[in-house]
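User: I'm designing a mutation panel for Endonuclease/exonuclease/phosphatase family metal-dependent hydrolase and want to avoid disrupting the core. Could you give me a predicted structure to guide residue selection? Please restate the sequence first so the numbering is unambiguous.

Assistant: Good idea. Sequence first, for numbering, then the predicted structure tokens:
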Amino acid sequence: MSTLRSVRRPVFPRRPALALVGGTALLGTVAAGLIGAAPAQAVAWPDKITNVSIVSSSPGTFTVRWSQSGKNTTGYRLETGLNPFSKTNSQMPYTGRHSHVFLIDKNARSFTFSASQLAAAGAPFGSGNQVYFRLSALNNTRTGTQARNWAYLQAGIPQAPSYRGETVRIGTFNVRTATGAGRAWPSRVVDVAKQLRYYNAEVYALQELNVGRADGKSGSLNGTQRQTQSLVSQLKRTGAGKYRLVRTTPYVSPDAKVNTQGERILYDSTRIRLLSNCPDTQPRHGWNSSCSIRLPIRSNDPSTMTRFAGYAKFQDKTTGKQFWFVSVHLDDRHTGSAANQRSLNALRGAQIAKVQSVINGLNTQHLPVIIAGDYNAWQNDRAGDASHDALVSAGYTDSYAASKVVRGQYATFNDFATTVKPGVNNFGTRLDKIMFRGFTGSATWNNVVKVTDTRRASDHNLVVSDLVY
């Protein structure tokens, strides 16, 4: 499967072009007449651009190609952003996040992004970010500038090399809490266990696998299983008794007012050795804070918004290689207020910074690190993707930057919809991510989802990636 994708997206009709005269934007001769000046000489329209396409070039980049006669054209402008943007649709931002403009010679009919140009566009190779772009033909004259836009917003992503070598399969799966609406957990756990067994990852990051009752009822256990324990039991019944949870009990005392403790780690005990000491309980208490990270909340948030991350150090029994692993579930709040969205985006950035700080302190041997889970943030969010950006800046790679991507056109969450549809420009929204540092690369990335399914295991999809040591 090609890692380069382009789907034309029609936009609303163009606004009348603005001629730039003496640094002032004038709308044709009408504006000139209103200020009592002589009409500016009309600037000729550049000829139309046709056949804009994205082609593979070499690993770490991609090329944009187009056709145009060159008539009335002094050059081209390629405007990029990390989310869709429009000059005519007021429901969309005027420019994309991390907006950048590249000016191209008039004789060119193609543009290949260099590594530095992709970084300037906010999509360095390994970030997993796609580049949204719009191409325009320009006619710059002494009396003004005229631009003719290609009518479609398009998007491309740097091509990944073909990675080879010893791999470890990693998965992340928000299995949805037992107390949520929809199919009850005792029914869904059967399907969750089947998927986990079938895709056979060495380590899974799980979210919303909570420590409350598996039947979803509130109150004390009264002899019933926890949701965590019920998954382990079902895996045994499914023939996957090799899987173990690093922790099955609460991270805090029962009277603590916190949000979710569902950030758990499941590993294949026949292929992976747990090196961390992560006891489930402590003397006279049925809980323990071992191998957990309390994530920050905003100063005005109640303690009930507190979340955790689970972590552990592992060793691959086949290769002997060791690595740190973290399961995260960042703040899930999103609102219609732009200011609040920015605040919550910053919070998710602070939560991932806390995870990095703790793991960096533990990782004195500078071993590889995997931080996987439900980030509750995505590239197309106008407010930003602070948690992802912070990890990329710290040298982490998004496993989506893989040699082979499977079903990347669909979102990683399905909301229990019977049918799912491709995302904007054929890129799906990715809330669920596997970020890594210290591995060679990602050989495969697989979004496990059926287009039509009346029996979804969760409102998120299982995401699996093969990382090359």
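For picking mutation sites, this is relevant: The radius of gyration is 26 Å. Residues 338-362 form the longest helix (25 residues).
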